[in-house]
Design goal:
The chain is α/β, with parallel strands linked by helices. 39% of the residues lie in helices and 26% in strands. The chain contains 11 helices and 13 strands. The strands form 4 sheets. Strands 2, 4, 5, 6, 7 and 8 form a 6-stranded mixed β-sheet that branches. Strands 11-10-12 form a 3-stranded antiparallel β-sheet, with helices on one face. Helix 3 packs parallel to helix 8 and helix 6 crosses helix 8. The relative contact order is 0.12.
């Protein structure tokens, strides 16, 4: 990867932002890679020397690293294990996962993961967290032969607002949230990990033989569906969002003069907003753009 300094940051700031001692050991996949798109993983591998990322893009990940180090330094006692990387093998592939905190109790392990994240992520219950934490539970069971009793996220909300919290609703009441993640059955965890490894192995075979990589699904593209917003002139926020245009039109007409329907075309957020660093080499994304251009 090529790291740029487009904002002319001082050397000390640039070095602090871009320093990393991360390693997944001798594993072929980390848990975060396992739950992500096999297509993205292969394209990153293929174009690693061409990918560019600016130093400022590392700000929040480095902030997250600092938070991890702060909590790691505060862990004491034999019943707590901090920042342990575990390894296990599935269908000939070694995978690994670094677990932020394991609290050992008499009836099982409490697995915790620190997240420096946004309020939006907490309110909308990120499904990636469910997958990641259940994979960690799988790792504990298979690498350490220990039962897991609870999964949780310790979320630090970087954009939390005291004023918004005082307004109530479903807004978090504190900048630090403890979120219990539903734990799947052991068989569901086993099946999920095996299925994800098989998908990555398929993509690896296609990459090695010059075949067609499996496509990203809607979830991996962070797709937002097309919706029809019922709005009132002079009001910024929509009154209601509909997935069916006729329903939106009927609703607007029932509200009377001054109401109208605004079509909000769906998009693949990860691709469109450059959250995906390999979209410029992705034929699936190029084809999607061509289809939208033809529709216009």
């Amino acid at each position: 990867m090529k790291i740029t300094n487009q904002h002319n940051l001082p050397e000390v700031v640039f070095n602090a932002l871009t320093f990393s001692d991360y390693t997944k050991g001798d594993s072929l996949l980390s848990v975060t890679q396992l739950i992500d798109s096999p297509r993205v993983s292969q394209l990153q591998r293929q174009h690693d020397d061409e990918i560019e990322q600016d130093a400022v893009d590392f700000l929040w990940s480095r902030f997250g690293t600092s938070v991890h180090q702060m909590f790691e330094a505060a862990v004491h006692g034999a019943d707590c294990i901090s920042e342990e990387r575990l390894f296990a093998e599935v269908n000939g592939w070694k995978i690994s996962g670094a677990i932020d905190l394991q609290h050992l109790t008499h009836d099982g392990v409490i697995v915790s993961d620190y997240k420096v994240t946004s309020v939006w992520s907490v309110i909308n219950d990120k499904q990636e967290w469910h997958k990641q934490l259940n994979c960690y539970a799988w790792m504990v069971r298979h690498a350490k032969q220990l039962p897991v009793k609870q999964l949780r996220i310790i979320a630090i909300l970087r954009d939390w607002s005291r004023r918004k919290a005082q307004e109530g609703g479903n807004y978090p009441d504190s900048p630090i949230q403890m979120i219990t993640i539903p734990m799947w059955s052991e068989s569901d965890q086993d099946n999920y990990v095996q299925e994800r490894v098989a998908l990555h192995q398929e993509a690896d075979f296609e990459f090695a033989t010059g075949g067609e990589l499996p496509k990203c699904d809607a979830h991996e593209r962070w797709d937002k569906p097309t919706v029809f917003a019922v709005q009132k002139k002079g009001r910024v926020r929509a009154i209601k969002l509909h997935t069916v245009e006729d329903d939106a039109v009927a609703h607007a007409e029932s509200l009377g003069t001054g109401h109208f329907v605004d079509k909000r075309t769906g998009e693949s957020t990860r691709c469109l907003q450059n959250w995906c660093r390999v979209n410029e080499w992705c034929e699936q994304w190029k084809e999607s753009k061509r289809e939208k251009a033809n529709q216009k």
